[in-house]
Amino acid sequence: THTHTHTAMSYQQSQQKLLNAQPGRLGDSSSTEGVPLLGLNEQLAAEESNRSTSCLSTALQCCCCPLSFGITCLSSIITVKQQTEAVVFRWGRYERTIKEPGMHFSNVFGRSIQYVATKIQSRDLPSNGAGRFTMLDSDGNPLVVSAVVVYQFVDSYKAALAVQYPEQFILTQGETVLRNVVSRFPYESQDGAADLRSESAEVNDLLTKRLQEKVFCAGVRVHSFQLKEISYSPVIAAAMLKRQQAAAIVSARQTVVAGAVDIATGAISALQERGMNLDEQATAHLVGNLLTVICSESEVTPTLPLRT
User: Fold this and answer.
1) Is residue 201 within 8 Å of residue 225, measured between CB atoms?
2) Phi, psi (5° rounding) for residue 108?
3) Closest Cα partner for 227 from 139, 144, 127?
4) Distance in angstroms (rounded) separating the CA atoms of residues 269 and 273
5) N or C: which end of the chain has fewer CB within 10 A?
6) Secondary structure letter of residue 217 according to DSSP
């Protein structure tokens, strides 16, 4: 109100000065210092325009300052979810880490935020949609392998600053560790040594330990790294199946023969305990018949000589 009153008074004073400077009659040419009527109207219109512009500028300043302040305050409010941490940067420089969930205030100017989830997560390897890796074991046999890794971010500062893409870093290192560990063991061992098929617990522990060493710099804790599927590659699967079948047949034969020998020995010992002493030829004939009957794959038909 004071501004408007002051402006109105200034307008009235300028108008009075212009009227005083105007000659008494329009046709009076005796005065050379008078102001023409047309110039007076232009000056009055210019002053009116300046006064309107000044009023509009004052009104905009009064309205925009509180509005800008309110928008800045609202933009400075950030929300941190449960089991999530927010790493705050100011003009590209680390400022602080917000670990408590809820609403927090941080000035919006020059601020950037990177959120890090601290939940336990699991990812399949491979993750590129291929389904399984093709790797070589210690004997050079191609294997089809897939695995699953369970991990958790425990240091948000390292996860945000140490590596560029933490999740991709974990998967890449996991693939490297998986290839390294698989190449150290055979798929199956013939001499009782550790292999990939039977010693899965030992292999999984080694996978977890090696991966933890790789991703420690990214603030990650590896809970487990386990083989999900492992088998021969289709290229050699048929040949390996035949070898497994042959090994199984040999093992079964050894078991049958060992049992037949025990049966024959037990039969001879039982006969001797009952007073039936057989000579070497009879004993060999009895043992031969027992081994033939027991070890035969098909049903045996006894043949007896007839004497007349």
Assistant:
1) no
2) -75, -25
3) 144
4) 6
5) C
6) G
Question: What DSSP state is assigned to residue 128?
Answer: S
Task: Write down the H helix ranges in 183-236.
Answer: 200-215
Is pLDDT of 30 > 80?
no
Strands (E), the chain: 77-80, 84-90, 93-98, 102-105, 111-117, 121-125, 133-136, 142-153, 220-232
CB contact set of 103 (below 8 Å; sequence gap of 6+): 77, 78, 79
User: Alpha-carbon distance 182 to 194, whole Å?
Assistant: 12
Q: What is the pTM of this model?
A: 0.59
Q: Within 13 Å and on the Cβ side, how many CA atoms surround 81? A: 7
What is the C-alpha separation between 14 and 20, in angstroms, rounded? 10
Q: Between these two residues, 113 and 277, which has the higher pLDDT value?
A: 113
- With the C-alpha atoms ordered 119, 124, 130, 131, is the resulting torsion angle positive or negative? negative
